[in-house]
Amino acid sequence: PVLLEMRAITKEFPGVKALSDVNLVVRRGEIHAIAGENGAGKSTLMKVLSGVYPYGSYSGEIRYHGSESRFSDIRASEQAGIVIIHQELALVPGMSITENIFLGNEPRRGGAIDWKSANRQALELMARVGLREDPDTLIKDIGVGKQQLVEIAKAFAKDVKLLILDEPTAALNESDSQHLLDLLRGFKQRGITSIIISHKLNEIAEVADSITILRDGKTIETLDIKADGVDEDRIVRGMVGRELHSR
Ligand code: ADP
Ligand code: MG
Ligand code: MG
User: Fold this and answer.
1) What's the whole-model pTM score?
2) Which pLDDT score, from 0 to 100, does residue 247 have?
3) 1-81+161-247: CATH architecture
4) Can you tell me whether residue 173 is helix, strand or coil?
5) Which residues of the chain are in CATH 3.40.50.300 domains?
6) Distance, CA 85 to ligand 3 centroid (Å)?
């Protein structure tokens, strides 16, 4: 069953056509990779999906859970369970893990923020991502791997159904990357659909069920990795366009 369909998405910036008639179909419960060279339009496509670029600023159609979705902003897409973690993490370095997880969304009691409850909930969310730290630790005092986990815990605080990770392992070392990929597989077991932007073929092979390849703002093709395996040559040719492919 299909969870998400983006049809004929076209998005222009002044002087740049970032996306032209891009299509993306994501099945419920899968891990879907999006690959493409720098500038291919991967981040822009996910920003369209998550309401960073609202309805009206692009053309084409987004169908989510079978109905047309016109997100007016990031909050609207988050209310639908779509949470994006951007390449540049959106954490406040001088604030604690708990404060970052709930930023702007803190549990309240009698009108005031209930920090005791926030810390307790933060610990539960941190356990779900395998992050063992004191929740009062400041973001600037933990490494990028753990910061990425805080972002994912934050996504769970928002009740995520479709988790979008934009090049999540780009700045991570081998063991932090492995932990993250293991987590994605665990989330899948629990019914969470993920989209992972990556150009690392080894990690695509390891976690992805399907892959959509973008080049120069266009969809090249979608491959079913689960069924057909990873054809590395084909993926690379799709990304760099050294050979043309029939669809
Ligand atoms: P990718 O994530 O695949 O590296 P992007 O989606 O970031 O690619 O960018 C696609 C194209 O759109 C690039 O040519 C990029 O320079 C351009 N672009 C992206 N964001 C903006 C923006 N806010 N303003 C102008 N051009 C942009
Ligand atoms: Mg880029
Ligand atoms: Mg990008």
Assistant:
1) 0.94
2) 47
3) 3-Layer(aba) Sandwich (3.40)
4) coil
5) 1-81+161-247
6) 11
